[in-house]
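Exercise (ungraded).
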Amino acid sequence: MTNQWTTVCKIDDLVDNSGVCALVEHNQVALFKVVNNDNIHIFAVSNWDPVGQANVLYRGLVGSSAEQTLVISPLYKQRYCMSTGRCLDDENISLQTYEVRQEGKDVQLKLVR
Amino acid sequence: MNHPKCKTHIVVIGNGMVGHHFVEQMVEQNPLAEITVLSAEPRLAYDRVHLSEYFTGKSADDLAMTSPADYEQMNVSFHLNAKVTQIDKAFKTVITESGESFNYDKLVIATGSYPFVPPIPGNDQEHCLVYRTIEDLEAITASAKVSKTGVVVGGGLLGLEAANALKQAGLETHVVEFAPQLMAVQVDAGGGRLLKHKIEELGVKVHTQKATEVIEAGENARYKMCFKGGDFLETDMILFSAGIRPYDNLAREYELEVGERGGIVVNNFCQTSESDIYAIGECALWNNFIFGLVAPGYTMARVAAEHISGGDLQFTGADMSTKLKLMGVDVGSIGDAHAKTAGALSYVFENQPEGVYKKIVVDAKQEKLLGAVLVGDNSDYDTLLQYALNGIDLPEFPESLILPSDASTAPALGADALPLSATICSCHNVSKSDIIDAVTDGNCQLADVKSCTKASTGCGGCAALLKNVFDAELEKRGIEVKKDLCEHFAYSRVELFHLIQVGRIRSFSDLIEKHGQGLGCEVCKPAVGSILASVWNEHVLLPDHISLQDTNDTYLANMQKDGTYSVVPRIAGGEITPEKLIVLGTVAKKYNLYTKITGGQRVDLFGARVEQLPLIWEELIEAGFETGHAYAKALRTVKSCVGSTWCRFGVQDSVTQAIDLENRYKGLRAPHKLKMAVSGCTRECAEAQSKDIGVIATENGWNLYVCGNGGMKPRHADLFATDLDTPTLYRYIDRVLMFYVRTADRLQRTSVWMENLEGGLNYLKQVVIEDSLGICEELEAQMQHVVDSYHCEWTSVTKNNQSRKRFRQFVNSDQQDNNIVFVEERDQIRPATLAEKSQIQQRDNQELAMDISIVEIESDLA
């Protein structure tokens, strides 16, 4: 098993405080660029909404609660912490999260093979 | 407990409150169960407990507890007017009057009861009626119209309710009771005496200890009731309410065990003598007792549903305590009201001048409360009931529980004194700990607690107690009831509106930097987005605003369950040319969209993938359509009837008026969606009185109605002003709407806004018509700004490449989302169900496997 950084899109493809989706080896990955007082943070989570059973999470609203940065499902409004994938509204549910980084103008994911 | 989730076919006979509750419980416990409901009545379950409200203006629909649509959604098939006449136990089949037969794995009899009519000669004449179903009420109403006097036979709980109904219908009302007192089951002699006095004060004549021997033709009225002993009473109509009898005829005919005095015998699982047949509610006899209240019936329904699903919940009797208001008189009865327990002792308090009677029954040691009777004042009922049900130790002087005292010394039993196991809502069996759990789960609104626990959604009798427990729990956790929008803003929506307007703030980031904290959330972001749009009316997809929008606004379309969207172009006033209709059809065909006519006189196109939206809109805009804002908390439609142009009855041109109104207010973003309608005459075909803004034509102009809505909690709009000319009509609507946009809470419809407005309709009239706040000019100017700055959001998006880039599933691929799968139904697409998807996938995999093996064979050959 090796870890490998893979370029999935350009930084310009991302939208401030909102999400887009990238297709990475048949997996749909939702990418969020969160801008807060000039700090930029990119999050990558699975695009699959486990409650709504649809590939829509990239269309969710970005928000925060206390220190956690959240994405809120556009279908049924469950809140997920984007760093841990944990669902704040149902402890039995979580999202897969991915390591993500900006490398020059590229956005890269670390994929486990 | 592991319930087998198998396909059991369950037939339910009867769809009263208990039968309906069983269906709900069954669906919840075993969603796969196939349920068939057979009801002899012409309508689905309705609220019989509040039947008398039919006479105070509630309609049959208001009393309905469910609807055909609800049942369809729950996958429950039902047949009305389908009286079951035969049970074939060997073949597990029931047959209805019309000869239809239904197989069952489990049969549930919930046939309820029928009113007992004493065998008095002459009791079967016209205008001799009973009080049980909506049809009975219709007959009573009809009879009351041609009667001056009415008699209710029976002075029990239902009899007094029926008497109230007759009184409200304007009849001279009498109650004739065989026993020496009213409500002999629930109330003791002392309470009965006071109750009779109070009821007579209200103008109903009570005749106790009267046995009717015959009903003959009257001299001064239609009938003459002759009593034993020679007295008589003349009356135009007679209502029998002398108790109920279980509807157990099916059980008798088909040899299920029944009790000596009726009732289908059931065990603790509500099974009859035939183990696959259950009986619940008022037709069931448990431990030689029939429970004539709804709460025990609900418990039986739950027990039967659990047992069918493999559970082992048991019915072990029920508390028969009751609290009610009869003709405005409080009556309460708890537990052993008649002090029948050996050694029981009583305390009695009576205040004749004020008409209050209270009695408590305690055990010999004076430690526990056994029962109570309350007449004229039920304020102690909840506390006493908790003492009795939970075996709470009585205070040192038990009489202090009923003696009048000032508030400081009254031994209030706060929510804290209740044990966790205390039952708060007996209809739905919700305990104090269930409420606390719901609060722990984050339900900080009473409404949320109600909806997740169902507490207080049955008879509603526990509402006050529920609120006590809920408030106490919040207080304990240090939760103040604050008006803050959310954790990011310590302001209400109204306050934020002012901050934005006065501070001329134009973006969320600016607002949160100055007045908030954090990144925002699903509550504050759309709310602020809406305020910004109401005040400045900039495009919602500008980079500053895009991240604020809720699900539908973000993509200017309505997201459906599978992540596809529906598209609704504006069809102002519901008027559309054949050419445009053809365009809608052509576009729908080209993109394979499901089409449906909406309630707002437009066409909804479903099943568009996110990447198709700009393409679809390009074609629609080309043909002259513009966005319909179906995705926004904004003006949706202005519905209209065809009006005086075509209609023989119309007095004004409602279509032109509707189109003008729609074009004036389209794009106005508001705290919630807005709907309007214009009717061309008082026949009101456009249903304007169910809209936020309703306009109805008169000979002299237009009548304006405000703040109505349909939906979950319908409200009729209030008549606001009459015979307006069109310029005045617009001025008033400008002012009402802008005042609403400024002062309403987030997601508050105009109806709720109006109900919460201090001073209500009159206050709104003062503000809008008399300009009591001196803001009308400002409100109009603000509306004019919105009108002048209108733009079609979709036209801007399709022209802007940067905006269009947002509409794609993947930033790095042109592939489609393979989870979106459609199947055909009635010649159109619909989203595939999970089962269908996995079937389709299996088939694809098999085909793929076959392809691969063919390739392998070929390569072998090579």
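Further reading is listed at the end of the chapter. For now, observe: Residues 834-861 of chain B form the longest helix (28 residues). Residues 493-537 of chain B form one domain.
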